[in-house]
Amino acid sequence: MLRPANGYKLHTVTQSFAMPSVIRLNRYVRAPYKGVSLTRQNIFRRDNNQCQYCGTHKDLTLDHVIPSSKGGPHSWLNLVTACKRCNAKKGDHTPQEADMYPRHRPYRPTYALFLRDNSGFGNEWDEYLR
Ligand SMILES: [Zn+2]
Predict the structure, then answer these.
(1) CA of 63 relative to ligand 1 center, distance in Å
(2) C-alpha to C-alpha distance for 54 and 68, rounded to whole angstroms
(3) 3-class secondary structure for 41-110?
(4) Residues, CB within 5 angstroms of ligand 1 (ion)
(5) 39 C-alpha to center of ligand 1: Å?
(6) What is the pTM of this model?
(7) CATH number (domain holding residue 66)
(8) Residue 108, domain member (yes or no)
(9) Would you say residue 21 lies in a domain?
(10) pLDDT value at residue 1
């Protein structure tokens, strides 16, 4: 059985090779793709459990960047993690009106990105998972 860690070797009958940490595929068989579901927990995860306005990790909730009352959709691109204080302060205003802008532009995460965060592989995988 192969162990998914560096420092191990791959053995054939006559040779052995250092196990690579990244394997490049010459051909890719596309698997059915199901996006990461839009849930409160997944949005927190995407935003590193950090308020996108002040940076705190406490008392988190969701903020519609463009408020729903102004037509902002309930989507990956319009929802960010915000603490209750910033959420209340921003209230029913657009970023321009409140002069509060998220630190990171909200994006739709991929499974690969979520896997990286939980795989323990760390930074050596970064350029392959963007
Ligand atoms: Zn905040």
Answers:
(1) 10
(2) 22
(3) HHHHHHCCCCCCCCCCCCCEEEEECCCHHHCCCCCCCCEEEEEHHHHHHHCCCCHHHHCCCCCCCCCCCC
(4) 51, 53-54, 83, 86
(5) 20
(6) 0.66
(7) 1.10.30
(8) yes
(9) no
(10) 44
Domain assignment of residue 59, given as a range: 38-130
Q: What is the pLDDT of residues 83-120, one digit of tens each?
A: 999 999 999 999 999 999 999 999 998 877 677 665 55
110, 130 Cβ separation under 8 angstroms: no
Q: How many domains does the chain have?
A: 1
CA of 104 to the centre of ligand 1 (A): 13
Report if residue 100 sits inside a domain. yes
Query: How many whole angstroms from 21 Cα to the centroid of ligand 1?
Result: 38
